[in-house]
Known about the structure:
Layout: E1 10-15, H1 19-27, E2 35-39, H2 49-53, H3 60-78, H4 92-101, E3 108-112, H5 115-123, E4 131-139, H6 143-151, E5 158-160, H7 168-172, E6 175-179, H8 186-192, E7 202-210, H9 213-223, H10 228-231, H11 235-247
Parallel strand pairs: 1-7
Antiparallel strand pairs: 2-4, 3-6, 4-7, 5-6
Amino acid sequence: MPVFEDDIGxxxxxxxxxxxxxxxxxxxxxxxxxIWRGQSNCxxxxxxxxxxxxxxEFDKGDRKRQAEKHLARFKYIAKGYIExxxxxxxxxxxxxxxxxxxxLATPLLDWTYSPFVALFFAIHNLLxxxxxxxxxxxxxxxxxxxxxxSQKEIPIIKRFHPEQRxxxxxxxxxxxxxxxxxxxxxxxWITQCTQDASLINLFKIDIExxxxxxxxxxxxxxxxxxxxxxxxxxxxxxxxxxxxAFRIDKYxxxx
Length: 255
């Protein structure tokens, strides 16, 4: 179930305006320890695309085996179409990261070290939405949670930076991944693996947008150099940036 109030290990906050998010981030103690994820719908849990896709087909016990088959199929079909010999080191997590880059349903969640990059990803597809509430999630250090998970015989969460040398998007987005145990949402896992109720391991910040506020926020982020062609440094990023500049007045000065 999505978080709409404080829970064990989770701090919930609802903001009436996106500019309040700037103050919120500045006020977080040890904010540098958190990684961030933006979601365009405040009712979504932190669930991997693999679990969303196969949620009703396999029980928890069978999902790991099905995921291994899913990845093996990708490796077989992708051979000859996607160059991966020099960007992966033979580990499945590296291959999952590459596959996610191309849109495969995986057990990974994307994160960034920048809360404002997370904000961009939460709203970039919502231009001209008159009313919308989005969520920004902030995830802290998982070491203590993973210790408790091991004690409870719950699978741990792995946080990692892929060793891919040909993924400029990942570099420019300041990105990394968490690998979620099959059949869990990350927020559900946090509540089960937090022993000290006073600790905040996960923030959920809901932000309300009205009228042209999404447009105004995108203009602000562009002034921070957070936009399509910096986060997607390729032809797709260029075209998406130009489309956005065409649709938003004074988004980009061209001369």
